[in-house]
């Protein structure tokens, strides 16, 4: 069970993974040793999965974000497993969710621009045999983006 100190540490790390144990300890009025021990425990217990750097999509020439809803051609376990395996190997697909409703999967795709997306749909998604239909939604502007988990 997380106590208020653990939650404070997690919130600080979500905001800035570069924050030092010393900076955390000063903010929480603790010494660095218990902060270090708590962080190691939070990592061991799986509350902290990994540390990453968030990159600028525009600067890396991936300025178009597309949400793509995908339906399977046939709803079989084999088709679903094939699609999941293929999607996991496509670098442009940065997130994939199995969803309920009119579609089976929702993909978040990053590409340079509309011509790049057209090439991606025809040359990559179009070659996946288990896909029955695709519906694309194009992001015109990002209003809120967060990697933080609210708690």
From TrEMBL:
Cellular-component GO terms for this entry: cytosol
GO molecular function ontology, one term from the record: sequence-specific DNA binding
Domain HTH asnC-type: 2-65
Protein name listed in UniProt: Lrp/AsnC family transcriptional regulator
Keywords: DNA-binding, Transcription, Transcription regulation
Pfam families: AsnC_trans_reg, HTH_24
Gene Ontology terms: biological process: response to amino acid
InterPro entries: AsnC-type_HTH_dom, Dimeric_a/b-barrel, Tscrpt_reg_AsnC-like, Tscrpt_reg_AsnC/Lrp_C, WH-like_DNA-bd_sf, WH_DNA-bd_sf
């Amino acid at each position: 069970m997380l106590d208020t100190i653990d939650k404070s540490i997690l919130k600080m790390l979500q905001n800035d993974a570069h924050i030092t144990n010393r900076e955390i300890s000063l903010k929480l009025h603790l010494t660095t040793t218990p902060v270090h021990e708590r962080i190691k425990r939070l990592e061991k217990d799986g509350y902290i999965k990994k540390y990453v750097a968030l990159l600028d999509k525009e600067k890396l020439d991936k300025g178009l974000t597309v949400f793509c809803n995908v339906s399977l051609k046939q709803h079989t376990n084999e088709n679903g497993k094939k699609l999941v395996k293929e999607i996991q190997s496509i670098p442009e697909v940065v997130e994939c969710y199995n969803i309920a409703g009119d579609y089976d999967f929702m993909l978040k795709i990053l590409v340079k621009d509309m011509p790049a997306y057209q090439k991606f749909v025809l040359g990559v998604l179009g070659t996946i045999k288990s896909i029955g239909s695709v519906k694309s939604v194009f992001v015109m502007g990002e209003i809120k983006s967060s990697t933080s988990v609210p708690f």
